[in-house]
C-alpha cells in the first residue's frame, strides 16, 4: 500500500507565509494560526456537524472509537519511545493525557471482550497511524504537533462531546464514555496553559520549526480525512442495516400472507365438509336417491372397464 500525505510542501509553505511569521510568536500560537482554515474545515465535516446538532448514532460512535484506538495506539507508542527526546519530553504527560486504555474500555463495553477481532478501521485511519509511526522514527519533534492537535482538542471539547454522546445514545453511568474523561486533569484550562507553556519552551532551529508547522497542518488534514472516511462507513453500515431490516420485514409479510392463504383454504375445506355432511344427513328420500346414483355409477364404471 502506498501512503500519501495531504498537502504538498509548496502549498503548506504558501499558507504559512500568508498567515504567520515564523519568528513573531510562540510555537503554540503559530500552530493555531497556520491550522485555522483546517480547523474550520474539520468542524464542518459531516461527522462533527452531527455532534454539533446533538444527533450521534451508535454506529457513528462505535466506528469513531475504532479509529481513535488505532490513532492513539500509534501516537502513544511513538511518544513513549521518544519520551526523552528534547522536543518530546516537555509535553510528555502520559498520566494526565493518555487515551489508549480509555478507548479500550469503551470498545470492550460496546463490542465485548473479543473487541479486537470485531473492530473495523478505515483506510484513512491507517494512513494517519502510519504517519505517526514514521515520524516517531525519523522526526520525533513532529510528534509535538500531533500531540497538541489531538490531546488539547480532546481536552477542550471532551466534556461537551461526552455529554452529547451520552444524551444521544442514552448511556447510563458513564459506561462507554471513558474516552471523554480525564481523571488526571483537575482543571482543563490550567492544564492547557501549562501544556502551551511547555510547548513554547521547546528550542527549535528555524527549519525544525517550519517542519513542525507543516506537520500541524498535515495533522488536521489527516483528521479531516479520517472523519470523512468514517462517515462513508457509517452510511454504508446504516444502509446495509436498513436493507436487512427491510428484507426481514418482507419475509415476515410473505409468511403472514401464506399463513392467511392456508387458513382461508382450511376454512373452505371445512365449509365443503359441512355441506357434504349436511347432504348426507338430509331426508331419507335424498339418501335413497343418492344410493341409487352411486350404484348406477359403480355399474357404469364396471362396464367401461370391460
TrEMBL record:
GO biological process, one term: heme oxidation
SUPFAM superfamilies named among the record's database cross-references: Heme oxygenase-like (SSF48613)
Cited PANTHER family: HEME OXYGENASE, HEME OXYGENASE 1
Species in which this protein is naturally found: Oncorhynchus kisutch (Coho salmon)
Subcellular location: Endoplasmic reticulum
Gene coding for it: LOC109876403
Pfam families linked: Heme_oxygenase
Segments passing through the bilayer: 285-305
Chief site of localization: endoplasmic reticulum
Enzyme class of the recorded protein, top EC level: oxidoreductase
Protein's recorded name: heme oxygenase (biliverdin-producing)
Family statement: Belongs to the heme oxygenase family.
Alphabetized UniProt keyword annotations: Endoplasmic reticulum, Heme, Iron, Membrane, Metal-binding, Oxidoreductase, Transmembrane, Transmembrane helix
Single GO MF annotation: heme oxygenase (decyclizing) activity
Entry EC number(s): 1.14.14.18
Amino acid at each position: 500500500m502506498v501512503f500519501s500525505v495531504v498537502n504538498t510542501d509548496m502549498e503548506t509553505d504558501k499558507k504559512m507565509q500568508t498567515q504567520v511569521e515564523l519568528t513573531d510568536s510562540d510555537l503554540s500560537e503559530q500552530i493555531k494560526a497556520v491550522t485555522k482554515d483546517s480547523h474550520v474545515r474539520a468542524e464542518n465535516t459531516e461527522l462533527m456537524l452531527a455532534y454539533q446538532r446533538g444527533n450521534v448514532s451508535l454506529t457513528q460512535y462505535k466506528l469513531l472509537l475504532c479509529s481513535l484506538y488505532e490513532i492513539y495506539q500509534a501516537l502513544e507508542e511513538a511518544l513513549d519511545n521518544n519520551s526523552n527526546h528534547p522536543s518530546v519530553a516537555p509535553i510528555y504527560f502520559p498520566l494526565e493525557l493518555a487515551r489508549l486504555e480509555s478507548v479500550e474500555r469503551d470498545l470492550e463495553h460496546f463490542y465485548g471482550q473479543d473487541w479486537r477481532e470485531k473492530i473495523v478501521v478505515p483506510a484513512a485511519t491507517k494512513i494517519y497511524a502510519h504517519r505517526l509511526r514514521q515520524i516517531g522514527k525519523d522526526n520525533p519533534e513532529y510528534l509535538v504537533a500531533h500531540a497538541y492537535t489531538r490531546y488539547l482538542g480532546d481536552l477542550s471539547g471532551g466534556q461537551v462531546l461526552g455529554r452529547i454522546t451520552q444524551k444521544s445514545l442514552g448511556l447510563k453511568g458513564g459506561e462507554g464514555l471513558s474516552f471523554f474523561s480525564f481523571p488526571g486533569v483537575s482543571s482543563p484550562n490550567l492544564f492547557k496553559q501549562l501544556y502551551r507553556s511547555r510547548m513554547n519552551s521547546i528550542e527549535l532551529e528555524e527549519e525544525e520549526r517550519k517542519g513542525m508547522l507543516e506537520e500541524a497542518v498535515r495533522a488536521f488534514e489527516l483528521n479531516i480525512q479520517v472523519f470523512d472516511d468514517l462517515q462513508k462507513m457509517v452510511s454504508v453500515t446504516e444502509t446495509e442495516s436498513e436493507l436487512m431490516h427491510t428484507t426481514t420485514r418482507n419475509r415476515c409479510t410473505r409468511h403472514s400472507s401464506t399463513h392467511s392463504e392456508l387458513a382461508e383454504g382450511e376454512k373452505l375445506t371445512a365449509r365443503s365438509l359441512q355441506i357434504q355432511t349436511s347432504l348426507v344427513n338430509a331426508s331419507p328420500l335424498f339418501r335413497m336417491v343418492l344410493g341409487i346414483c352411486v350404484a348406477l355409477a359403480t355399474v357404469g364404471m364396471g362396464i367401461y372397464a370391460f
